[in-house]
Amino acid sequence: MRTIMAKNQHESFSFSRRYFNFKKKVEDEEYDDEVYLNDFHSSSLRGEEEYFGMHSTANASTVSKKLSRSTVSKLRSALTFGKSRTQIGLGSKVVGTLFGYRRGHVHFAFQEDPKLGPAFFVEMATPTSHLVREMASGLVRIALESDKRTGKKGVKLLEEPIWRTYCNGRKCGYAMKRECGPDEWKILNSIGPVSMGAGVLPSDGDGIGLEGELMYMRAKFERVVGSKDSEAFYMMNPDGHGGPELSLYLLRV
Question: Does 209 map to a domain?
Fold first, then answer.
């Protein structure tokens, strides 16, 4: 994976100084804040929920006699499938996966473990090709902002449905919270064995290939929680220390 260096020490957000009360990963830098968008109203995305349940009036010994081996096997497979997609909270070290089709949009997922469902998964309006160019040319910092509005008490920062997106100080549309469906899981599983690196997966020829090859990058990130309204994710170098290559800020303002 290409090493990414900052073009100069002033290409940065001031978010870490304004919103986070913790040790910064980079030197203090100046940034003229972008004018925020006007307040907007949006409805939360509703993902499809799946329920799995069993009802039995017989006792355990009777049921065990009636269940065939094939039924037990199917049941275990269903439970394993559900367990692998269980979402859990994030710790201080997480797996970050960035992917998108060359002519499509960027998706960003944070997982505690690649086998578990993403605790944070968004699709950004930023074209994949644009972000790749940014990462190839220098330091990349992405800030996602959501509005702090009345009536939203109890909504966790990672569960915000819509975000304003900034990449290296420039507004670049919105990001939306997504559910990790079968197509997304197929991609994450394809990248599964990779712990850190970047590459390209060939299109599968089912129509999605019209958007080009699938580009991805996966790395370990250090997660730092500033407050209930601010978090930061810093890409880590292979030696375990925080690196300046890519940072993602989540802010509720």
Answer: yes
Q: Residue 145: inside a domain, yes or no?
A: yes
Closest CA to 108 of 224, 24, 215: 215
Q: What is the pLDDT of residue 157?
A: 95
Backbone angles phi, psi at 156, to 5 degrees: -75, 155
Domain membership of residue 59 (yes or no) is no
Question: CB atoms < 10 A from the CB of 79, how many?
Answer: 11
Q: How far apart are CA 206 and CA 194, in angstroms?
A: 24
Residue 26: domain span:
15-36+87-252
- Domain count across the chain: 1
pTM: 0.64
Residue predicted with more confidence, 250 or 67: 250
C-alpha span between 155 and 235 (Å, rounded): 26
pLDDT tens string 82-117: 444 445 578 999 999 999 998 999 999 999 998 899
Inside any domain, residue 62: no
Beta bridge partners of 197: 218
